[in-house]
Amino acid sequence: MSRPRFDKLDPARQKRLFDNAAEEFGANGYDGASLNRILERSEMSKSSLYYYFDDKADLFTTLVERSVGFLLREIGGLDPDALTAETYWSELEKLYCRSLALMNKSTWYVKLGRMFYRLRSDPKQSAPTGRIFQAARHWVGLIIARGQALGVVRGDLPDSLLIDSALGLGEALDRWIVAHWDDYTPEERLAMAEQHVGLFRALLECRETQVSRPSAAR
Fold this sequence. Notes:
Residues 34-53 bind DNA. GO terms for molecular function: DNA-binding transcription factor activity; transcription cis-regulatory region binding. By secondary structure, this protein is mainly α. It has two domains: 1-53, Orthogonal Bundle (Arc Repressor Mutant, subunit A), CATH 1.10.10.60; 57-217, Tetracycline Repressor, domain 2. The chain is built from eleven helices and no strands. The protein has helices at 11-32, 35-42, 46-52, 56-75, 88-105, 108-120, 130-150, 159-180, 186-204, 207-212, 214-217. Helix 4 crosses helix 6 (108-120), helix 5 (88-105) packs antiparallel against helix 9 (186-204) and helix 7 (130-150) packs across helix 8 (159-180). It is elongated. It starts with 10 loop residues before the first helix and ends with a helix. The mean pLDDT is 88.
């Protein structure tokens, strides 16, 4: 995790470092990316880098975190407290669709996802990716708790099991999307929003709500 002292670094130097890191990782992948090239273009010494980051994996994961933050600002956030029983699933689907639409416009996020999961699959270098999943776990917990309060998410299982199951499904979908992105047209990718949220709905939806849905009766 980037150290707090990094936040005190001049914003222009921060931007230059992340711009060059994004270019290097995007062009050469995680394994092929050279810290020396990133540092040379950023006019930063290796000792300075290690003053702010633990290693290459830490720099990359911080880049992912900032990119995710930018993505969320672009697509708009989701306030759990603003969800109602009527809008709960449709708002999640809209958020998913906006994410796919942004990925259609900028394949950088697809490349980033591929590199991230390649890093996560390496036991020797996966530790920094854990903090992203901790943040995701917190957000998923808030969404599930709101759904339970609204009566649209099941409450017959331990919350920790529901959160773990939702995170597991989310990671499986993320991995699949970035691996098969080039196999689909932009329109087909957008159609995935309804399909994939449908998987979450089948996993999490309150059974009483499922029974009352017309599609469940057919």
